[in-house]
Amino acid sequence: MFAQVAFCYRGTVNPADLAHADALPLHSRTPAAWARAVLADPIALLIDHAFLEKKAAANAMELLTRWPNDGVDGWVETMTSVARDETAHLAQVTRILMNRGGKLDRIHKNPYANSLRLLVRKGDPAEILDRLLVSALIEVRSCERFAVLAAESTDTELAAFYRGLYLSEFGHYKVFLALARKISKPAAMEARWQEMLAAEARILAGQAAGPRIHSGFLT
Ligand SMILES: [Fe+2]
Ligand SMILES: [Fe+2]
Hints:
Layout: H1 15-20, H2 32-38, H3 42-66, H4 75-99, H5 111-117, H6 126-152, H7 156-183, H8 186-205
Helix pairs in contact: 3-4, 4-7, 6-7, 6-8
The protein binds fe (ii) ion (2 copies).
């Protein structure tokens, strides 16, 4: 039964291996220098990160209610489980932020995610496929970024935090992709996924530098 799919990857994978090995299909790799640069401003990084977790939870809830009865086995279970995981991540990151004297801002901009959303074709069934693939893209890139952060952080609390997250986001990437495979013909899904992966690398490369999870490489 699909609901039994593991949302958190349970294997034992070294963060550095996951970030740099062929385990991830990303078309670009984040250099260690990016992590060292963004970790220089941990409060700003945590604030940005908190908004990403909130958005990830809201995205799962939006997908749940947008296509609640389309007969996709595991749809409701997946979306509620992902939303639960992302809300737990939000609680973790805000606790770390507050303990360090940081506060959430009212406004958050995420040009990376906004650009990815522009890839979504309107109108079913392409829209539902693209929404799932964009969700998978954000998860797999976040997974890679958390792995690099875990490997490079000299702050033991943050290193452990990021290590815990990269496995969870890896599980989310896999489960969104599994749903995409259920609703689409394999060849069409794979072709669209490859287009999306290439577009993601271009979009990320065009992002400005700065202490954000999805910032550009040049910091
Ligand atoms: Fe998360
Ligand atoms: Fe996630």
